[in-house]
Design brief:
The protein has 281 residues and is α/β, with parallel strands linked by helices. The chain is built from 10 helices and 12 strands. It is 30% helix and 13% strand. The longest helix has 12 residues. The two termini are 29 Å apart.
């Protein structure tokens, strides 16, 4: 159900410019690509980034270690504490995250930080592309990072596990945020497709194609109401391929005043057991 007291998860480029001089504002560059080389993302960061931003490797922070990324769950509290310390995040900070990949990498880190109890975190609307297009300050200098002191305290209400999903999936709205092709599956791959009953709302529909900005609240509300007529009366869970693009839908839902959980691991975890059915089309 919509709750107007839920704050927007987004911050505009103009708002961030005005906040940048404040020492408690911590900006993180979360650029990269799914299946890309983190070293290439770091190289791009060293060449140019938002002034004062620290590089955040989304493949190693706030994620279960020693597990393939498509199957890795959110980190436990001990591992999350290591990330908060390494990134210099403390109580009272305002964290701003940005990427160049449709907000889904920054979105995953936003969700993971909030899952671990750090709630004063925002996504830069439009990301790196929009920041550059507006001519806002960039730099190649690497800022110093002091040790962070925030201690994780998990909020299980923001995460749906596989076991929980199996129990509730027939009684909820389960969103699949992947593109249409991924959702529909391939004829030559019997384990491709989607979780039976999942409703496809591609993450790309949340964004303006030209600017990369999130669509206005009214447009987002219309999309969800058309796809999910029972949105106001039925519990909703967001999912995708591995728990990344689903966070773009979470951000959009927060924009319309809704807080819903993420099925962590999503379809990649679901399809691992061949006894669990998959649907196509």
């Amino acid at each position: 159900m919509s709750n107007n007291s839920i704050e927007s998860p987004l911050i505009s480029a103009e708002e961030l410019v005005n906040l940048m001089p404040q020492p408690q504002v911590k900006i993180f560059d979360v650029r990269g690509r799914w299946n890309g080389d983190p070293a290439e993302a770091f190289k791009a960061y060293t060449q140019s980034h938002i002034e004062g931003a620290v590089f955040l490797d989304w493949t190693s922070h706030f994620v279960e270690p020693d597990t393939p990324l498509n199957l890795a769950s959110v980190a436990n509290e001990a591992v999350a504490n290591q990330s908060f310390e390494a990134l210099g995040i403390s109580e009272g900070d305002l964290v701003v995250l940005y990427d160049d990949y449709h907000h889904m990498l920054a979105g995953r880190m936003w969700w993971a930080m909030r899952f671990h109890g750090f709630t004063n975190v925002k996504i830069l609307n439009g990301g790196w592309k929009h920041w550059q297009s507006q001519g806002h300050p960039v730099s190649s200098m690497l800022p110093m990072v002091s040790k962070g002191a925030f201690r994780a305290k998990s909020n299980p209400e923001l995460r749906t596990s596989l076991e929980e999903l199996i129990e509730i999936k027939d009684h909820i709205n389960l969103i699949d945020a992947r593109g249409v092709k991924g959702y529909q599956g391939r004829v030559d791959d019997p384990r491709s497709g989607h979780i039976p009953g999942a409703i496809n709302i591609p993450y790309s529909e949340m964004l303006d194609a030209a600017s990369g900005l999130f669509k206005p609240r009214e447009a987002l509300l219309k999309i969800f109401q058309e796809k999910l007529p029972n949105l106001a009366t039925t519990d909703t869970v967001s999912s995708c391929g591995a728990g990344y693009s689903g966070t773009v839908v979470l951000l959009a839902l927060q924009q319309i005043g809704m807080e819903v959980p993420l099925f962590d691991g999503s379809f990649s975890v679901w399809k691992m057991d061949e006894s669990r059915p998959v649907a196509k089309g």
